[in-house]
Design brief:
Length: 244
């Protein structure tokens, strides 16, 4: 049974839009999670915005000739049907087994995603009709493009269930953050603690960058030793006073 899509609070989106995927991987590593970066998720076009959203998952398995046919596109279990279940603001995360010679979505499907208010598409596979896909304005991350349709190499089997995308276990409603470095998963159950740690990490690294620009050497600064931790604490307290 497909998992119900959950909304994502605007405060969560706002907080994570200021956090890079690089920072998130570091924070998640400190929480014991090493395998959270979805391999092969490169931006299809330069300048795509950082996105934050709940994962809406779609799953492909290897092609089987009796199932992977153009007729399957009209089946109740199809990418077309899955798209109609997607809520606005979600990120479509498609597990395509890393297949790069069959496009999972083309321009028409991407146009429908855009119309439904889907924030973006993330896959370890590829898309087709690239000029049309770019023309929809839908932000896409994946391994590139291919002319053949999905059924040339894949069979679509379901949505809103656990998937493998880029070697990462993605569950429906996990949170995805994606930017120019690719897509990172935050387990839904860890969201609050990861946000708090990530916002603080970005703040600390912003201070460190300012110190680097002032000419400070890296040893003892990055990561900070006790002396620099005290300097950072004083700076943060001063920033708080400035806001009062």
């Amino acid at each position: 049974m497909a998992t119900t899509s959950l909304p994502l609070d605007e405060s969560v989106i706002k907080a994570l839009q200021g956090v890079t995927t690089a920072t998130l991987t570091t924070v998640l590593l400190k929480h014991g999670l090493r395998n959270v970066w979805l391999r092969g998720t490169r931006p299809l076009a330069p300048g795509q915005p950082r996105l934050v959203g709940r994962a809406f998952t779609l799953r492909f398995v290897p092609a089987r000739e009796d199932l992977a046919t153009p007729a399957s596109w009209g089946s109740p279990i199809s990418t077309r049907a899955a798209i109609e279940d997607m809520p606005a603001g979600c990120i479509a995360v498609v597990g395509a087994l890393g297949v790069t010679d069959a496009g999972i979505f083309g321009d028409i499907l991407c146009a429908r995603l855009r119309k439904r208010g889907v924030a973006g598409l993330v896959t370890d596979g590829v898309v087709r009709d690239v000029a049309g896909v770019l023309g929809t304005g839908l932000p896409v991350w994946g391994q590139g493009t291919a002319a053949p349709a999905s059924v040339a190499g894949l069979t679509f089997v379901g949505w809103q269930e656990p998937i493998d995308c880029g070697g990462v276990a993605v569950f429906p409603n996990d949170v995805i953050v994606v930017d120019q470095d690719g897509a990172v998963l935050i387990p839904a159950a860890m969201l609050d603690e990861v946000i708090a740690a990530s916002v603080e990490q970005e703040r600390l690294e912003g201070w460190i960058m300012r110190e680097v620009e002032r000419g400070m050497p890296l040893p003892g600064l990055y990561p900070p030793n006790e002396e620099n931790k005290a300097r950072y604490k004083a700076w943060t307290e001063g920033q708080g006073a400035d806001r009062c």
